[in-house]
Structure prediction request, 305 residues.
Amino acid sequence: MPLSFKHLTSTKQLLRKDTDSIVQVAAEMEAVLKKGGDNRLAKKVLASLFYEPSTRTRLSFETAMLRLGGSVITADGFQFSSLYKGETVEDTITVVGQYADIICMRHPEQGSADRAAAVSPVPFINAGDGPGQHPTQALLDLFTIQKERKRIDGLKIAMAGDLRYGRTVHSLSFLLGLYKDISFVFISPKELTMPAKVTDFLQEKGIPFEETDKLAASYDCDVLYMTRVQEERFADHSEYERLKNKYCLTAKPLKGKKVTVMHPLPRVGEIATDVDALPTAAYFRQVRNGVPVRMALLAMLLNAA
Ligand code: NCD
Prediction:
């Protein structure tokens, strides 16, 4: 089924029929990956523009393109880019759109992805715009929840850590808003609560959520989505130092519980390594799901699904 959009900048633009078909095509891509890939995107070029650090997102986008037989051109590192010379996002995208068939971009400014999509001559995918959105992470999170729990409807989802600056939890909350009988528990220090853009959205849709600073509120949920305190977003570094060690999830309270533990990674102390051995620790499986989900998106946006 064709997607309802040409560019992906925010999970708010997705319809349920889009997420259903992305999840279905991603499952097909897992079978393609088992045989090492195919050549459906031969002669297609992905431009991968990363103006902020990335390991997983960039490598999984590039892997996804290569596994489908396509090629990748890349510009990473602020200092090597024309952004450094003062070029606008609009001009950069207009230029890169002359070379590539599809573009993914990570950029430190919230809203930069919408500006890019407004001028992009080829399909554009937001790979993270500052504290704004990270829609492909949310899609792989959704795919992971579906695989781990065999359903999405009816789940109680806890999100913990830096809910203020963490773009992954913003994108995932909007996306889960497409499903039935979802409820949320938002766990953070009061300085890092979920922004109004998310809580207003949930209120408008009548989706229940609780807010607390107690990690224990998550132990009886279906999913616990932990996040890193986003050091790079703090204007005052001492504030980061004060808040960074607020939560550390350990294995003990999770023993015998069914809560699926997720994290977009990197973790920097908020999940102890003893959690890794629990069968419910899903974060390394979650990472793996980034490739088939991004293969699905690239193929669908290039009409090759
Ligand atoms: C996340 C991001 O970049 O927003 N990482 C990722 O894409 N896997 C989360 C983070 O950096 O904390």
About this structure: The first helix runs from residue 16 to 34. Residues 56-57, 128, 134, 137, 167-168, 228, 264-265 surround N-carbamoyl-L-aspartate (CB under 6 Å). The chain has a mean pLDDT of 95.
